Amino acid sequence: MKRSLLLAGLAATLGVSIAACAGNMSGNSSAATASQAAGTSPAAASATPLYDAKALPPGREGKLIAYGRALFMHTQKYAPRNVAVTMSCSACHVAGGTVKRGGYLRIYGQFPQWNGRSKRFIFLQDRIAECFLYSMNGTPPPYTSKTMIAMTAYLAYISRGQPTMSKPDPQIIIAQFKAPAPPSIARGSKLYASKCSMCHGADGSGSATFPPLWGAKSFNNGAGMEKVAMMAGFVRYNMPQNAPGTLTDQQSYDVAAFVLSHARPKFVKNRMIVFPPAPASFF
């Protein structure tokens, strides 16, 4: 009940309808409607950047969306008590989730959805909480907090024009494919040394700019990137950062296997997560 109220409150906070942000059940996107009204084609409208700080809605709505973007790009800075790693959301969601095959985040209209891990339907806030618990090895912000509402508002904004209850386009999500041959940690070690270590460190500890790939400050063993197919897909299209797409399918699997052969934090599934109560006046 509380989460349903929060979704309604988010719409009020944004000052726009959920349908306007995420499209509609018929599949006719608001972007297409706007482009027709403006005399431009839907294709031309789709070329509009998903996030442009100068084009944000005015007032509090735009500030909330901008703060949500900042949280994705600099999570350690703006939500330090919620993360136990030395990385931000943008480590797995390139450019704040606006790059195809780079952890794309135009997902607002896909919720609520069935979640196989938790065996229940989840809201977008639950999905964000998962990232804090696994990828950040930390603690999710309360669902009624400014942090959670801002992050949800940002995802709603970059999802504008998407039909609600839609399935992710297989051409834009992180590709998961089979390796041509079983991945080799030995080959991956050599590739890592030549292609990855200059950014992520020979010991995988990362730097002030690039995230750690293993060790105490990296994602835990429950994160999506712990799956070799997931990491291989991300590496294939996004790494090395200075030459993305230059590694072959096999090389991507080899590097992923090498990275995942190292120790990392373990997810503690019995840890209790308790959010502070909110007064009735909040709702």
Verbal overview:
The protein has 283 residues and is mainly α. Helix content is 41%, strand content 2%. It folds into two domains: 2-167, Cytochrome c-like domain (Cytochrome Bc1 Complex, Chain D, domain 2); 185-260, Cytochrome Bc1 Complex, Chain D, domain 2. It has helices at residues 2-14, 18-22, 30-38, 42-46, 59-73, 75-78, 94-97, 124-133, 146-158, 185-195, 197-200, 228-238, 249-260; strands spanning 113-115, 120-122. It is globular, with a radius of gyration of 20 Å. Residues 1-45 have low confidence and may be disordered.
List keywords for this structure.
2 strands, Cytochrome Bc1 Complex, Chain D, domain 2, mainly alpha, two-stranded antiparallel ribbon, globular, single chain
Helix-strand layout with pairing:
Layout: H1 2-14, H2 18-22, H3 30-38, H4 42-46, H5 59-73, H6 75-78, H7 94-97, E1 113-115, E2 120-122, H8 124-133, H9 146-158, H10 185-195, H11 197-200, H12 228-238, H13 249-260
Antiparallel strand pairs: 1-2
Helix pairs in contact: 5-9, 10-13, 12-13
The biggest sheet amounts to:
2 strands, antiparallel
Architecture (CATH level 2) name of the largest domain: Orthogonal Bundle
Give start-end ranges of low-pLDDT stretches. 1-45
Average pLDDT rating = 86
Domain tally: 2
| Helical content class | 40-55%
